Input
Amino acid sequence: MSVPSLASFQGIQANAAPQFVGIFLVWALFGVLSTQTYLYFKTFSNDRIFLKTLVYTVYTLQMAQTILLTRAEWKVFVTGFGDLDSLGEVWAAWIALCVIGGIVTFLVQLFYAYRIYVLSQNAFVSGIITLASQLFDLFH
Output
């Protein structure tokens, strides 16, 4: 394998820096989520099984997303070190960001709509909010 010339690395910061900083932010936010999940289960141990299952499901999906993103960045920065083409590869990031992110967003928005229904006792308002949020996500 030949060593790339210094001229071929021009602009590498513009391509690599956002991915590099992004994975640190993903892990920092996952740490915050882990702390929140721990405190939820410790503080609200008497909540209904539905709420506990929802929290655990969202946490598990976020863990899978973090693992997939870390694996993709490992392939870019470790396995593909020196290969400028690896900066443009998608790997498994599309599953983590699009599919898992969409499922988590859907679950959380449905929970918020449920809470609005419980507080307002108005199914119409809750339905409109759910429809609007799903349409926004669809066209966003």
In short: The longest helix spans residues 12-43. DSSP finds four helices and no strands in the chain. The chain has one domain: 14-139.
